[in-house]
Amino acid sequence: MQRVHKVFLYAGFLLAAIPVARLLAWRIPSTLPITVMQQVIPEEAAPGQTVMVTGYALDATNVRDVYLIDARTEYRVEILDQANRALHFRVPSVPAGRMRLASIAPGYAELMEQSVFVTVLEDRITQGR
User: CB neighbours (10 Å) of residue 44?
Assistant: First the structure.
C-alpha cells in the first residue's frame, strides 16, 4: 500500500514540474544574436558621409537597426547596405565627438553595444555659418 502512495507522490511532483520547466524555457532565448563589429572605415566622418563597418553577422537577419551612442543619447543611423561581413551607413546630423556603435537584432529591443567607435566631425554646413 505504501508503494502505491510513492508512485502517486512522484507523479504529482513530475506534473508540477512541467509548467515550471515550460516557463523557464520560454524566458530563455534559444539563440542569442552573435553580431560582432570589428572595424569602422573611415574612423572619422562628418554628418552625411558614408561609413563602412566590417565584422560578422551584419546582415539583415542579425541586425535590424544601428545606433551611434554617446554618454546620454542614442542616434539611429540610416543603413544603406548590409551583408554578412560589411554594413554601410550614413552618419546622421549629430553633435561632434567620439561615438560608440550599437545594434539591435530582429526580435529584440535591447541595444547591443559594440567595441568600435567613430569620431563624428563638425558638420561642414553649420561650421561655415
Answer: 13
- Domains plus CATH for the chain? 36-127 (2.60.40.10)
pTM for this prediction: 0.71
**Nine-digit cell string for 119:** 569620431
User: Is the dihedral angle over the CA atoms 75, 121, 78, 67 positive or is it negative?
Assistant: negative
- Grid coordinates belonging to 51: 561609413
Strands (DSSP E) contained in the chain are 36-41, 44-45, 50-56, 65-69, 74-76, 78-82, 86-90, 97-104, 112-120
For residues 81 and 48, what is the distance between their CA atoms, to the nearest angstrom? 15
User: Tens digits of per-residue pLDDT, 88-112?
Assistant: 999 999 999 999 999 999 988 889 9
